[in-house]
Design brief:
Chain A: It is found in: Cell inner membrane. Chain A: GO terms for molecular function: heme transmembrane transporter activity. Chain A: It is a multi-pass membrane protein. The complex is a heterodimer of chains A (224) and B (248). Chain A contains ten helices and no strands. Chain A is an all-alpha fold. Chain A has one domain. The longest helix of chain A is centred in the middle third of the chain and has 31 residues. Chain A is globular, with a radius of gyration of 18 Å. By secondary structure, chain B is of the alpha/beta class. Chain B has one domain: 3-Layer(aba) Sandwich (Rossmann fold). In chain B, the strands form two sheets. In chain B, strands 6-7-8-3-9-10 form a six-stranded mixed beta sheet, with helices on both faces. A four-stranded antiparallel beta sheet of chain B has the order 2-1-4-5, with helices on one face. The chains are: A mainly alpha (224), B alpha/beta (248).
Amino acid sequence: MKKSLYIAAKDLRSEFRTKQMLNSMLIFSLIVMVIFSISFGDVLGQTELVGKLAPGVLWVAFTFAGTLGLSRSFAGEMENGCLEGLKLSPIDRSSIYIGKTISNVLLMFIVELLTIPIFIVLFNYNISGIPGLALVIFLGTFGFVSVGTLLSALSASTRAREIMLPVLLLPLIIPVIIPAVMATGTILADGSIGDISSELRLLIVYDLIFFVVGQLVFEYTVMD
Amino acid sequence: MDSIISLTGLSKSFGRRKALNNIDLVIGKGEFVAIFGPNGAGKTTLLKIMSTIIEPTKGNVLINGIDSKKDPSKIRGMIGAISHETYLYDELTARENLEFFAHMYDIDKDHIDDRIDDILKNVNLFQRADERAGSFSRGMKQRLSIARALLHQPSILLMDEPYTGLDQHAAANFERVLMGTGNSDVTRIMITHNIERAFELCDRMLIMDRGELRFDKLKTDIESVEEFKEQYLSIVEKDTDAEGISNF
């Protein structure tokens, strides 16, 4: 676990210096928000209607911005043969997966933290139930990144990696996106955490399964 | 001489293509071995198997008495690797790169700073320690790459075409650093196409072709670099001729 944290710290340090992933994710999120706010200009300020749109708008932004970021997640490791350098060191392959997952989750949280205020301003909307929403976003993001990190490693060594990642990722994240969108909708409609217990259970099970499977199969995705 | 690397009946196939075919090789502690061969001869595959990055299809690998299938992680801890790839993160400084790998190699936290200072001085990069690796010249990156490989004081150093991209001056610098760092007990194995330089540095010369070990002699048993070049050409050209006939 300690080595995973060093890997995550190294990734975050590199990212904060170049901001390659963060910038592209944030700009994408902003564009999505602006386009949706223009498209749904008629309903801006109408709390009930915006509340119905909000889960879809937010998760579209999170998912596609996340996919964009994940496609760069292993790009840095492919430069200068760094992934091989990591594989040569006496660490468990799963430590690389865990480290990458931690850094990707943290980067997505930053994007999400900045996207939500943009949504609030552009849609003139007041978000209620912040703790419940934070829990849903955390579980949804963790599940998304657990699968995404694995597939990012898998597609990193292929020629058409930019195309390969979304093609592989999007069908696999449907089971995490559906409960996340439904739970977000319930929370924004003043629901309590108790009202989304079935969605939370689904998210937790999905997260656990893919995080464990990711650790087990990661070795094979980075094998020569 | 005690052996540190022992390969027995080693074969490796990628699908239907055989990259290595029944290699038997013993390398002693402290030996400096050069491996030559045309592209696709299986040299890099052999080094990757020694470093436990890939598993052989058949055969056994013993590194310092440890079976590579049983404890690959322990073996990786004994090995330092230098390649034409630097394995360095361009966005991190020289010191940050070494700190990161020091953590990966479990170097005692209390000694990391001293060790990094020492090794950066050895490779003449101490003054540039806080500059990003991405801003370094190819020669400087290769010296930092040596520092990274020797940081954990490995007993085996594997080098895969380390001269790639280096000019004459940088290559000479690389050799100076290579021979000046680490202790004489370090076993060095180098893949290269540079026969003259390797003949100067190494104790033992191997030639591989088409996944087989075709030549294995101590330098003292070879009269001159010219004789070795002739041997090399006769092995490689004979096989090329044979391939031409079989293809025809």
